[in-house]
Amino acid sequence: MDEALRLHAFASPQPGARLVVLGGVHGDETCGTVAIERVRADLESGRLALRRGELTLVPVANPLARRRQRREGERNLNRSFQPDPRPADYEARITNRLCPVLARHDVLLDLHSFHTDGTPFAMIGPRDNSGPLEPFHRAREEGLLALHLGTDCVVEAWLEVYAARLARRGEAGDARALAFGWGTNEYMRSQGGYAVTLECGQHRDPQAPEVAYRAILASLALLDMAGEPPPPRRPPRLLRLVDVVDREAEGDRLLRDWASFDAVQRGQPIGLRADGQAVAAPCDGVIVFPNPQALPGTEWFYLAVDSDRELRA
């Protein structure tokens, strides 16, 4: 029997922004769930009042993966995130339930955590453009939301790097392969909204739920839905993803316990293939999302460089 999806909706009599917050897109990422349940309790007790707009809270977006206490139920929910008239797995059925929820909102905050040590960071989409990959016209609003989430780093250009990965693998013209790269944020942007993913810290970091909780409150305040905006912080470092390296075999291994934003220099060995061949950094930059447990054929680590983009309040 399929696991049921639980949503909590709050609506003010006063019109305003429509925000949806997701937790537990991956079953082993619990910080968003804890934070969402805390905000729900605040609203239901009256400690927090929704003065305008609509708020939908989804504590566990992938109930099957959560019950199994692993990243995926049957596959990664944050891929192929588009309606499917013939859903073939649990995640496709959940996607069909979540897509209409996202489509009727203006803003998405998607709360995640990561495998290895590292500091929290936000992820945003493309700059305003009318190109074929991911046309978008709300980059300023999206960047403003990222600025208010309180992280020291903001990372851009996920889908561009994913498309380049497909090109290297000879799948550049495969629409299904590109569609597989779509997650919650890409779908939200395709529906006219905007979205930020917040990586709140390592899975078991006791501070990660607090990072997620503060981010929800900051989002509500920025959108004039509830609470007061936090004091301004120094501008975050803005990074642009430029490469992704796949783990190809079980014998592939990283040469150290890398953490997101560890610096690397061009030519520096990062890992070893199963046959002993070194995997070296193609440029100066930083590691993002190192995953020593990545399955063969999936993303092993990303590389990023400083971006020339400016995010302005």
UniProtKB/TrEMBL annotation:
This is Succinylglutamate desuccinylase. It comes from Pseudorhodoferax aquiterrae. Coiled coil: none annotated. Its cofactor is Zn(2+). Residues 15-113 form the Succinylglutamate desuccinylase/Aspartoacylase catalytic domain. It comes from the Bacteria. Keywords: Hydrolase, Metal-binding, Zinc. The keyword Transcription regulation does not apply. Residues 67-88 are annotated as: Disordered. The keyword Metal-binding applies. InterPro entries: AspA/AstE_fam, AstE_AspA_cat.
